[in-house]
């Protein structure tokens, strides 16, 4: 899902869709694709929305971005000298700027004929997709969500009689599990989405919960989302220092 406005990231999201914000000179979407490709997942459907043409242009001109080229100005010809090839098949679908997340999934339903992964265009993780898929198949539910425990933003104080007994600097999720995206779904989930204005995380997922058709795969490794400028700085630092856990390729 790559169609949201991403307003909290600030100025960058006014210039490009959030999945196209660059980390180490490559869009977030590229990092996500590379992670999935590690596990043999090479067919992608991108739900485009806000400034979706930029995503289309990037993949349409992928050789220009990734390869050496020679341009003969006299003949107006271009030759790709060294082709950097990825084993990807990328389907880019314009699902509308104002469509909600559930509606975006619904619109690409005609391409979803088998079990599929579903994730957001701003989340990075070292989750083992092979194990996630195996867990989903064993659960025999229509959908599985990856549960994560993101690091807290602030230190946690345990207090007794006005004295600090324990200080835990930025505890991992304060013991709470949250949705990290990285779903595995069956095509039947589409019947739980009514319209373009359905938010996947609300009514459709609530229906799955009531039907006991939503499982959770607990991931205790790395996970982060690029939601603010603070997040971008953190992710870039990991990449620049060679400490990016999501780099599984």
Q: Biggest sheet, open or closed, and with what strands and sense?
A: 5 strands, mixed
Helix content: 25-40%
Number of self-contained structural domains: 1
**Residue-averaged pLDDT:** 88
Q: State the total count of DSSP E strands.
A: 15
- Tell me the CATH architecture: Alpha-Beta Complex
CATH class descriptor: Alpha Beta
Number of helices: 8
Low-confidence stretches: none
Structural class: alpha+beta
Note the run of SSEs as H and E.
HEEHEHHEEEHEEHEEEEEHEEH
Q: Into which percentage range does the β-strand content fall? A: 25-35%
What sort of overall outline do the alpha carbons produce when their principal axes are compared? globular
CATH superfamily: Spore Coat Polysaccharide Biosynthesis Protein SpsA, Chain A
End-to-end separation: 22 Å
CATH-derived topology: Spore Coat Polysaccharide Biosynthesis Protein SpsA, Chain A
List the helices and strands and how they pair.
Blueprint: H1 12-15, E1 22-23, E2 26-27, H2 28-38, E3 43-48, H3 52-60, H4 62-66, E4 68-72, E5 77-82, E6 89-94, H5 101-107, E7 116-118, E8 123-125, H6 129-139, E9 143-148, E10 156-160, E11 163-168, E12 178-179, E13 183-185, H7 203-210, E14 214-218, E15 223-225, H8 229-240
Parallel strand pairs: 3-6, 9-14
Antiparallel strand pairs: 1-2, 4-5, 7-13, 8-15, 9-12, 9-13, 10-11
């Amino acid at each position: 899902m790559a169609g949201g406005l991403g307003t909290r990231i600030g100025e960058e999201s006014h210039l490009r869709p959030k999945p196209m914000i660059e980390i180490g000179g490559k869009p977030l979407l590229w990092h996500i694709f590379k992670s999935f490709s590690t596990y043999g997942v090479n067919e992608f459907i991108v739900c485009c929305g806000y400034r979706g043409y930029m995503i289309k242009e990037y993949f349409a001109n992928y050789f220009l971005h990734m390869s050496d080229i020679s341009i003969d100005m006299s003949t107006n010809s271009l030759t790709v000298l060294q082709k950097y090839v990825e084993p990807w098949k990328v389907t880019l679908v314009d699902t509308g700027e104002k469509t909600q997340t559930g509606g975006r999934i619904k619109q690409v339903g005609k391409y979803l004929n088998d079990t599929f992964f579903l994730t957001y265009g701003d989340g990075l993780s070292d989750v083992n997709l092979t194990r996630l898929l195996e867990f989903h198949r064993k659960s025999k539910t229509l959908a599985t969500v990856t549960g994560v425990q993101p690091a807290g933003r602030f230190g946690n104080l345990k207090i007794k009689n006005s004295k600090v007994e324990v200080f835990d600097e930025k505890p991992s999720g304060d013991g709470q599990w949250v949705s990290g995206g990285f779903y595995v779904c069956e095509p039947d989930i589409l019947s739980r989405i009514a319209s373009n204005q359905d938010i996947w995380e609300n009514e459709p997922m609530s229906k799955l919960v009531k039907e006991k058709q939503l499982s959770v795969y607990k991931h205790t490794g790395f996970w982060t989302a690029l939601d603010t400028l603070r997040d971008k700085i953190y992710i870039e630092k990991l990449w620049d220092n060679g400490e990016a856990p999501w780099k599984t390729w």
